[in-house]
Amino acid sequence: MDTTPQRELVASVQSHGILQPITVRYLESDNMYQIITGERRCSAAKEAGLAEIPCWIQTPKQEDVLVHQIVENWQRLDMHPYDLADALARLRDANGYSQKEIAKATAKSEGEISKILTLLDLDPAVQKLAREDRSGRITKRHLYAVRTLPPADQHSLIEKVQRDALTADDTEQLAAKTIDRRRTVARPGAPVSYHRFKTTEATVSLTFRKKEVTNDDIRDALDEARAKAMNSPTEPQAPTGDSSLN
Questions:
Q1: Which of 77, 113, 192, 194 gives 20 to 30 Å between its CA and that of 215?
Q2: Same domain for 172 and 126?
């Protein structure tokens, strides 16, 4: 990851000091103060050789600490997508929050929260590669595009993103072309297979233009439909291609 912003922050602290106090809370069990927000400012102050920095001492609940950290870090342009996704998952799992509750706590839209959490559904090998990349070249948009593909195609695309330094636009176009290549063109009289699933909120119907359908085919169709729904800000579109959802 590019450290230029941190170097600039150190230079600013050397010249002007810490202008905005960091926020801390006292941990009685450890007899120490824990930083809630302002870790980068604290690190910059240490590098600048400051012996003291201004602090606000608060006594928030643990879930509020995590919310404060997420909100502050979200404003960083260089924050890694998986650092954010992992933080939101911790907030969800530790407190039993719904996506709506997370959105309210962080002042973000529910749709944005949902999209970020879908990054945790990517193929594990793809996640590992993306997590280890700290160059800043792999953005949320890159990963959203990769997420639209079946797991079998995700790894090759993310490797191409790294190797060829693809832009987000390039990645989205390649993902769309890959989906088009995989889509079977329906022929008159071609065999059709129907699958229907009832959930607590809806009935999901899948129509395949082939007779033999595997569990992987069903999972890939649902993954693609889910990804398209996450990226669609308007009314659901009429289904096309191999499968349909009603």
A1: 113
A2: yes
